[in-house]
Amino acid sequence: MTESVVSDGAPAGAVTVPPTGAQYTIAAEGYRAVLTEVGGGIRALTYGDRPLLMDYPEDQPPVGGAGQLLIPWPNRVRDGRYIFDDEERQLAISEPRTGNAAHGFARLLSWTVLAEEPSSIRFGVRMFPQLGYPHVLDLTATYALGRGGLEVEVTATNVGAGTAPYGIGAHPYLTLGEGLVDDAVLEMPAAAWAELDDRKIPTGLRDVEGTPYDFRRARPIGDLPLDTPFTGLRRDPDGLVRVILRAGDGSHGVELWGGEGVEWLQVFTGDPLPEPYRRAGIAVEPMSCPPNAFETGENLLRLAPGDHVSHRWGVRALS
């Protein structure tokens, strides 16, 4: 039987599905967020008419990983190879230009809505074994809006039989809504940065003192290109680490905070991105471990069967 087709090539009566699947909107206290089925990610966040995160159109995939959750490892694993409990493993090479495995599996999975309210939504997914990762994790991601802006909590539970290596990251791009990040002022309480090789794998830790990477005191970003892991994070008395991006005239800004277990921040000015996204926002990625942690073991978590762990981060508008 021959299918009836229309001029655009889609089967008659078909509904076009966005690359990130179903879209969900939550709102409260002047904030509005759009979340996606694919990856359980965030596509947009605004406060009033101000964008706080660099967004992308519904009919396109996330540009530069915008808004994705990076599980069970953030950033990269060199050659996709690592040894865990004396077992050599090989992950799929998902970043051919560097020959690395990048950003985990969860960002490409279809997440299910477990609970939904006007101001919050909770997604869940069971991540079954993947090439080089023979573990089963139950993941949840809760997004909630309130007076303090957006709060995100991600939980992983090992429901499989063996101990699993685990790390987490997220990929929000902070934005001031207009202009390039060159004109913005960045404040980040990080005392050290990791130097990277040409495959974006750390080669050593450096003190920020006296280098272009010292943002412990607020200063303009200028034309500095960043795709850099930072650590040595100073926390405020409430236990949170805070990164602030402000307009050059100080009129408004946006803050990203990370809770317990956020030990690293990957900061990316988006120089390789296509227009109009190039340097339109600055990714401040809260991470539990650095790049290549599956190989080095640095800050890598071990989840025994039945173990669970949660990480929190959030974004709010500054006047």
From TrEMBL:
One Pfam entry name: Aldose_epim
User: Gene3D superfamilies under this entry?
Assistant: 2.70.98.10
InterPro entries found in the cross-reference section: Aldose_1/G6P_1-epimerase, Gal_mutarotase_sf_dom, GH-type_carb-bd, YihR-like
Question: CDD domains from the xrefs?
Answer: Aldose_epim_Ec_YihR
Name under which the protein is recorded: Aldose 1-epimerase
Gene name per UniProt: galM
